[in-house]
Amino acid sequence: QVQLVESGGGLVQTGGSLRLSCAASGSVVRLNTMSWYRQAPGEQRALVAEITSNGSTNYADSVKGRFTISRDNAKNTVYLQMNSLKSEDTAVYYCARDRRALGGTVSWGQGTQVTVSS
Question: Distance between CA atoms of 71 and 55, rounded to whole angstroms?
């Protein structure tokens, strides 16, 4: 059974940077589509970025040019580097393993809070 543990969230000022980490166990990140989602209060959970098994990446328009998703195969960990943070980036960020293309399901981490203050 996969376990995804996020870390790296916190409070940062507008324009600052944070790097989120997602350590996976029970699944190999390089063999799966791994994603970061976020959910702000009163809003639906939305895709922020994803990296596929062949290394292709996709980003929400709102974060293109500011956020970068990557993975470390040796550490079986996925990262989200967030630069030039804005107040609207404030949300709980969730790591996910998405196996829906293989007829499977989405597995979620517990989430980590990111708060951007002006």
Answer: 9
